[in-house]
Amino acid sequence: MMDTPSTTHHEADRDRLADVSVSDVSVSSGGRVGRICRSPLGWMLIGIVGVGAVSSVTATGPGPVPVLGAAVATVVYWAVLRFVARRPTAEIARRGAVREVVFGGGIGLVFVLVSALVVAAFGGYSFFWAGNGFFSVVASAVTVQAGAAVTEELMFRGLALLALERLFGSRAAVAITALLFGAAHLANPGATAWSALAIAVEAGVLLGAAFLWRRSIWFVVGMHFAWNATEQLLGIPVSGNAEGGLLSVHVSGSGLLTGGGFGLEASIVAVLISVALAVPMFVLAHRRGGLLPRRRAVR
């Protein structure tokens, strides 16, 4: 049902970026409403409403419901991009999806573990076995965080970044989506202006750079999932949301070091490490021709 990349490396890259040279579509059948819907902001908003509606219904559901919701959200994304935006969807291609998820997951896992260990080395975190039950905790972390990772990445790195990239170019699109991502977390428990800025840099900029480098939603989904699931299993609040983990964490010292009640995302350690990861990703994206300047963005 979803597109698969072309058979050669260069063709695959053209498919991913391509999408910036979509031919004009006759609007005689849709009139003004059709033009609005097929504009970048139009299909972005339609897609976000659709994916967001699925997420709101399934995100906190029991058992495998969040994962099923992620699958439905992916279908909604595909339908909006194919039938409303009328563009290919190579970024959600099935071919190579597992490889991209694993690759991204490895980076997300290392990012969280290194950040948490540095904070612990400075006396900010102490970990203890929580005794909450191994299988139930792992199953909950996997289902909840998989659902959140897929739906959030479809909305922010898929719909929003791709639409804004067409209007303003890649760099501006990353900056705007990063700020939106940070603002979206202001309602979370323990959130402050600093935590919103921190997560805008870590998740917004880092995941934006990762997407421009790989041009794969599955890569950033892997990063996002491993990041959140690892935090939950370590007992660290995930963006302010404290869930039962395999471990529990005792926090002490400066909130700037530990992130306080918001968790690791509000730690200066995580911010600095995320920047160290994002910079080479931007460089690699540039070398692959993955950074679109504004003059090439489709309006």
Description:
This protein is mostly helical. The chain has one domain. It has eleven helices and two strands. A two-stranded antiparallel ribbon has the order 1-2. Helix 3 runs antiparallel to helix 6. It is globular and about 60 Å long. The two termini are 28 Å apart.
Order of helices and strands: HHHHHEHHHHEHH
Strand order of the largest sheet: 1-2
> How many whole angstroms does the radius of gyration measure?
19 Å
* Amount of beta strand: under 5%
Q: So what's the oligomer here? A: single chain
In short:
By secondary structure, the chain is mainly alpha-helical.
Q: Which secondary structure elements does this structure contain, and how are they paired or packed?
A:
Elements: H1 9-18, H2 31-38, H3 40-58, H4 65-84, H5 97-121, E1 125-129, H6 134-168, H7 170-184, H8 193-214, H9 217-234, E2 247-251, H10 255-258, H11 268-287
Antiparallel strand pairs: 1-2
Helix pairs in contact: 2-3, 3-4, 3-6, 4-6, 5-9, 5-11, 6-7, 6-9, 7-8, 8-9, 8-11
Features:
single chain; 2 strands; 299 residues; mainly alpha
